[in-house]
Amino acid sequence: MTTRNRSLSSLISDSDGIDQSYFNDLIDRSIEPETLAIAVDVNAAGHEGDWLWTWGATSSLPYARDQITNQSQAGVPIYKKGTYTLKNFAGYSTYGASTQPHKIFLKWIDEPGTANLVPWVTYDSAENQFFDGVRSADSGTRVQTLSFSVPENITPPTLNTTTTTYNVGVADGQYVYTGIAMGSGVEIGPLRRGNTYNFALDGTTAGHPFYIATSLANFSAGTYADEYTHGVTNSRATENTSLTFTVPDSAPDTLYYQCGNHQNMQGTITVKDLALDSTGDGNYIVHWQHSQEGHNVPCEIRLVPSIVSQMCLAWDATKEKFVPQDLNDYMNKTPSFSSRITREIESRSIDSSTSISLIDSAYIIARIGDVGGGLDSAGVNSLIDSRSQIESHTTLVQDGTLSVLTGTARWYAPRNITIKRIRGHLGTAATGASVEIAIKKNGSSITTLSIPDGQASASSTGLNLSVNEADYITVDITQIGSTVAGSDLNLVLNYQ
Prior knowledge:
By secondary structure, this protein is mainly β. It folds into 5 domains: 2-30 and 309-333, no CATH class; 35-158 and 281-302; 163-272, Immunoglobulin-like; 350-388, no CATH class; 392-495, Nucleoplasmin core domain (Jelly Rolls, Sandwich). 14% of the residues lie in helices and 38% in strands. It contains 6 helices and 34 strands. The chain has helices at residues 2-12, 20-26, 327-333, 335-348, 352-367, 377-388, and strands at 13-14, 17-18, 35-41, 52-55, 68-71, 78-79, 83-88, 105-107, 122-129, 141-149, 163-171, 174-178, 183-184, 188-192, 196-201, 210-213, 232-233, 242-246, 254-259, 266-272, 277-278, 284-289, 296-302, 312-316, 321-325, 392-401, 411-412, 417-428, 435-441, 444-451, 457-460, 465-467, 472-480, 487-495. The protein has a 6-stranded mixed sheet with strand order 5-4-3-7-10-9, with no helix packed on it. A 6-stranded mixed sheet has the order 13-12-11-15-18-17, with no helix packed on it. Strands 6, 8, 21, 22 and 23 form a 5-stranded mixed sheet that branches. The longest helix is centred in the last third of the chain and has 16 residues, at 352-367. The chain is globular and about 80 Å long.
């Protein structure tokens, strides 16, 4: 033993101590690129509904993706050298409250249309597709498919300028958009400096001259206060004409559209450079984008991660080196280990007769005091119902730019419930201050939710808020940010 130890020591050390190069030759510290299958769907009407994402847990800890099913996401990153397949179940058919198919594209920038697509992606379609947890498990669907591998080195593109047309009408005292944008009084953009935008006004806009302004604070009917004309052709356009705006480099980040005669007919226009977005540490941000405005999710292109906690080294016979590995990798690559786990699960599982026995004995005995010392059939059914009750959710929506308001729309509990978690999602994060939301039961506040400055989502967990079947929930928005107001609030109540 002493001789072998001395021999090993001679391999890895010299007179100055340990020779690290030996370990460097023996250990490969690199993390394998990510391979991930993703599904996306839409079940809401309009352009501002969320993409709903589904994927399984990835096989490597450094990528830190938990398994999700039909969940909205503030961002969906990809990694350099990764290989991805995306199945878009909304590409050719509708689902839930959705009223039209929604194609998805991976674009260099957030804008409508199909210009400036990321070039590595192949777009195709496939019939009779399934994805665990998406729509009905027993019905195949035609899907739009995106397949791509992310290069290790990203070369920023020269972006193409585009021309876009907004269709504008008037209804109920508001400008109403159809086509590229959808809805009344909507926030437009981002418009990109150097691009051209046509605002085509239909016959309903008679008497409502449309112009662009730098501020709404000084409005006075017929004065066109703070009118912005740089790059604008045919300002104050009315029915069956168009206002054309070629956005100059000097355009401010925020402009407004306004009716010259009616103060309430207005909306915000966001302006950005024709350039890629990036994080503070230099990672590019591309966009999962519908061909119309809305349904946009940022996509950060991240570096392949490094080794993280809870990883070990395992011998790779192909590389003839030790490589980082987590338990999931180990199990997938070690059939005997996987089989042993399967046998253990099978040997310790309970069949239906055992389950019924447990319900009939241990559980009912433990609860028998709750029903006054005796159980009839109704009591047994009540216990079983309470035992098997699953979590449900409802989503409360406030479209458009938020304003401070006292909510009047009521959501009535479908039964006696307990609210366990509340999640808030913003289409546009507020800046300068947080978004503050008060949740009320029968007009009295029962909890609050704060979405911090600059963040698009927040959650309150560990709640136990009792709401009876006759009770109703309303939502007040008490703060909306200060520099930029948040927009497009989705409030998800999870309850049992």
